[in-house]
Write a structure and sequence with these properties.
There is one protein chain. This protein has helices at about 30-40, 40-55, 60-65, 85-95, 95-145, 150-160, 165-175, 190-205, 220-230, 245-255, 265-280, 295-305, 310-325; strands at about 5-10, 15-25, 25-30, 65-70, 75-85, 235, 235-240. The chain is an alpha+beta fold. The chain folds into three domains: about 5-95; about 110-175; about 190-325, Four Helix Bundle (Hemerythrin (Met), subunit A), CATH 1.20.120.1870. The longest helix is centred in the middle third of the chain and has 47 residues, at about 95-145. Mean pLDDT is about 80; it is low at about 145-155 and about 170-175.
Length: about 325
Amino acid sequence: MNNNAIEIYQNEDGALQLNVAIEQESVWLSQKQLITLFGRDKSVISRHINNVFKDGELDKNSVVAKFATTAEDGKVYQVEHYNLDVIISVGYRVKSNQGVKFRQWATKTLKQHLLQGYTLNQQRLTENANELEKALLLVKRAAALPFNAEFGAGLVDIVASYTQTFLWLQQYDEGLLDSPQGEIGGNLTPLSDAKQAISQLKQNLMAKGEATKLFANERDDGLAAIWGALDQTVFGEPAYPSIESKAAHLLYFVVKNHPFSDGNKRTGAFLLVDFLNRNNRLFNENYQPVINDTGLAAITLLVAESKPTEKDTIIRLIENLLSQNK
């Protein structure tokens, strides 16, 4: 990537200064800069970076990018840089106080860039949002005509009912979508109980002829790795502090990390419903499901078809969807 914005980070006494790249709503540092930031040698930083990906904590394709960098010899090279997610993970592993200060600086810096983007794009966002609402209303009216199939009409009705969700998606593209405050907490089903429930699901589907023996066969300790990632802390605080955040990442990790040889989408949707039910969030205050069968299938397929670079978009979309309908 080229033409990225640069901000200068320095510590309190000014002894440490780093040219920090700003791109894709994140900050980016090279391995050399991580070594400088955390005061560890190259082998330590390399080991921790490799473990972040080996443990399935982060998807390498979405958190690593190459930036054009001018070396000491004056030549320009494409050098791998790591985004804030990796920086935080490595900082946690090396237990660096400097990592805490860098995270605070990065959050403040990114917020400033976000506000600048808001000023530039607010008018265009409003115009596009109005057009989107009109288009969805038109589609909904068309679906009500007699010649439309029942499922087609129902699916379009779901799309129209989630107008706000699509507006959130557009706002994210404009750099305006934030994760909702959400409900703090969220308890995972004990891993052994989750595996037993999946086994029962498999038996039920096989009895109906809707699954084979390959369904939900765990690869290595894939599910345990996801459970560990969801329960991790960053600098002493939960990495996924809200029910909405944990639910969204649970679905995403199961569908995208492929912990099973087959049936990852169905198992992911099943575990999402189980998690929401365990935390009393499967139904809203009017005893209506926060997401119906069609909506669940649609959001699961959306996750499956998404690109790694779209992870933040998908996660925040699911978070806002669950928060809006609670």
